[in-house]
Amino acid sequence: MNTDRLLALGDDALIAAQRLAEWHASSPEMEEDVALANIALDQLGAARLLLTYAGEIEGRGRDEDALAFLRDDREFRNCLLVELPNGDFAVTIAKLLFLSAYQLPLYTRLAGGDDGRLAAIAAKARKESAYHLDHSAQWTFRLGDGTAESHRRMQDAVDELWPYTHE
């Protein structure tokens, strides 16, 4: 896998982690604070591994920290979906649903690839992505089947974010 693709995967995870961490002490349930923080840590762990590997392949002496914090904003390769503001809780859940629905099959495919190091990173991230997808799907059903207000917000979030899924 080339450096740009590794950077894109790492950047997706890094920005997703930062956005999810914004919910700390703000989510609708105390247990959800912990769940979103743990998902953010999973994404951050994947970002660290992917960015470290990208830095080594790149061969310019940049480590995970340099790639995470010392690049110009135009050098990031993440999809726009992860950059979008959190909005309300339904928007965050829809973002997580779409991201994890993308990451799970991608990491599954990469876990079976020829690049042993990337396969190991992907195998770890695949397990975490399966949990993220399940978690966000459960919340999507809960909000969608809840009150008229929660249903409207969840539907609005899906409608707002769906155009970004083409990436």
What do these coordinates show?
The protein has 167 residues and is mainly α. It has helices at 3-21, 30-58, 64-69, 80-83, 89-111, 116-144, 148-161. α5 (89-111) runs antiparallel to α6. It is globular. It starts with a helix and ends in a 6-residue tail after the last helix.
Tally of strands:
0
Q: Mean of residue pLDDT? A: 95
Give the count of helical stretches: 7
Ends distance: 18 Å
Give the ordered list of helices and strands.
HHHHHHH
Low-confidence stretches: none
Strand content bin: under 5%
Helical content stands at over 70%
Decide which structural class fits the backbone. mainly alpha
Radius of gyration: 16 Å
- Morphology call: globular
Question: How would the blueprint of this fold be written?
Answer:
Layout lengths: L2 H19 L8 H29 L5 H6 L10 H4 L5 H23 L4 H29 L3 H14 L6
TL;DR?
The protein is built from 7 helices and no strands. It has helices spanning 3-21, 30-58, 64-69, 80-83, 89-111, 116-144, 148-161. The longest helix is centred in the N-terminal third of the chain and has 29 residues, at 30-58.
